Amino acid sequence: MAKVLCVLYDDPTDGYPTTYARDDLPVIDAYPGGQTLPTPKTVDFTPGHLLGSVSGELGLRRFLEERGHTLVVTSDKEGADSVFDRELPDTDVVISQPFWPAYLTAERIAKAPKLKLAVTAGIGSDHVDLDAAIAHGVTVAEVTYCNSISVAEHVVMMILSQVRNYIPSHQVVLDGGWNIADCVSRSYDVEGMQIGTVAAGRIGLAVLRRLKPFDVHLHYTDRHRLPREIEEELNLTWHASTQEMVPFCDVVTVNAPLHPETEGLFDDKLISTMKRGAYLINTARAKIADRDSVVRALESGQLAGYAGDVWYPQPAPADHPWRTMPHHGMTPHISGSSLSAQARYAAGTREILEAWFDGTPIRDEYLIVQGGGLAGVGAHSYSTRT
Ligand code: NDP
Questions:
Q1: What residues are annotated to the active site?
Q2: Which of 4, 151, 185, 335 gives the lowest tally of CB atoms within 10 Å of its CB?
Q3: Burial category of 80 from C-beta neighbours within 10 Å (exposed 0-12, middle 13-18, buried 19 and up)
Q4: Which tens digit of pLDDT belongs to each residue from 44-100?
Q5: CA distance 268 to 276
Q6: 254 lines ligand 1 (CB under 6 A)
Q7: What is the predicted pLDDT for the residue at 325?
Q8: Is the beta carbon of 202 within 6 A of some atom in ligand 1?
Q9: Domain ranges (residues) in the chain
Q10: 384 CA distance to ligand 1 middle (Å)
Q11: pLDDT(385) > 80
């Protein structure tokens, strides 16, 4: 029987909800492109309920305990004395969410000889040292597509809120004020702008599609070029590299995974080649942008705004400079953890666990590492250090 160690974010500060703002979730039949939604045999949770926090347990307890497995759920993940570190040595399966990542470093993997499966209840497995997972024969899987559209919606919201100066204008209302000039002296229309995405995968392409009706000029760069019909449909300009694309853009949105090719990509040098007053929106991973370069660019005016929901480390310390830098629209890491997304990634996590315990294959679409190498979607989108 297996021990499953599940690291989730804390419950709401005023307790686990007993009621919700809405009674149901819209039914989604399939993802764009036709990939099916998660297909577990059944689920033991109500879609629309809070599943990603400790008391929600991703709806997994009954399923695991009925099969004789042990489930440990905790939010305590930092430091040698954390519940995570104490429980890890005899754990078979770790489940973690990018929003509250249990960093599975090489040192931690070395201390977990029984660990065979690391599941990301979400998308983005960069909190797992993939080289170490490969070396130790750990399978890494994530719930591909579960929250890609959730993030795309968040990106569009952040582009609009930055360009139109929404957050400071809302603050004027909260403060009892009415000074229009304070609100509009940094407010522009998105219409006509040049907007580029670094990566046009599931999220990047969904962002492009959602932006098209705003009558903007769309650009992208990606390691693999999109089919010609899509380039024509969206009137896309393709660039061979991020470096080539960003000088053209008023807004750049980052939608690539964090891996050796993308780490530190937006540094002083790259940002200095952007248009003065460009906006940078990063909901992918914090380390794709250099922390202090972003602060410097906002302070100098090279960037007019920066928004996103990804930080390093997570949770971000109280003195993280991105909390106080000018003209930012940061949120905690929430874009992929709407109640809608939670229902999908909880179901996807269950689907992966069912396959694992039944000894049937995990979908290729979910695999990042298996059999001592990058596999499935991981072989397409990630790279390793070696
Ligand atoms: P996909 O795998 O569908 O897309 C990733 C794309 O990035 C692929 O098209 C890939 O190219 C491209 N890519 C990889 N490396 C580079 C590079 N060096 N330069 C340009 N493009 C590159 O993933 P998603 O769109 O679903 O998710 C993307 C990322 O967003 C995740 O890895 C995760 O880090 C982040 N994310 C954030 C969430 C949040 O809550 N904030 C939630 C979900 C995801 P190709 O495959 O063509 O080689």
A1: 147, 285, 314, 333
A2: 185
A3: exposed
A4: 999 999 999 999 999 999 999 999 999 999 999 998 899 999 999 999 999 999 999
A5: 13
A6: no
A7: 98
A8: yes
A9: 3-146+337-373, 148-323
A10: 15
A11: no
Asked if residues 99 and 123 have their Cβ atoms less than 8 Å apart, the reply is no
Q: Does 56 sit in the ligand 1 pocket, CB within 6 Å?
A: no
Burial of 385 (C-beta count, 10 Å sphere; 0-12/13-18/19+): exposed
Fold agreement between 3-146+337-373 and 148-323: yes
Give the CATH architecture of domain 148-323: 3-Layer(aba) Sandwich (3.40)
> Annotated binding residues for NAD(+), as ranges?
148, 202-203, 222, 257-261, 283, 309, 333-336, 381
Task: Give the amino acid at 316.
Answer: A
The closest residue, in CA terms, to atom 35 on ligand 1 is 284
* pLDDT tens track for 353-384: 999 999 999 999 999 999 999 999 998 878 78
59 contact partners, CB below 8 Å, separation of at least 6: 43, 44, 45, 51, 346, 350
DSSP annotation of 285: -
- Note the pLDDT of residue 382: 81
pLDDT tens sequence across 7-54? 999 999 999 999 999 999 999 999 999 999 999 999 999 999 999 999
Q: Which atom of ligand 1 is nearest to the CA of 335?
A: 40
3-146+337-373: what fold? Rossmann fold (3.40.50)
- Among 79-83, 162-166, 262-266, the minimum mean pLDDT is found in 79-83
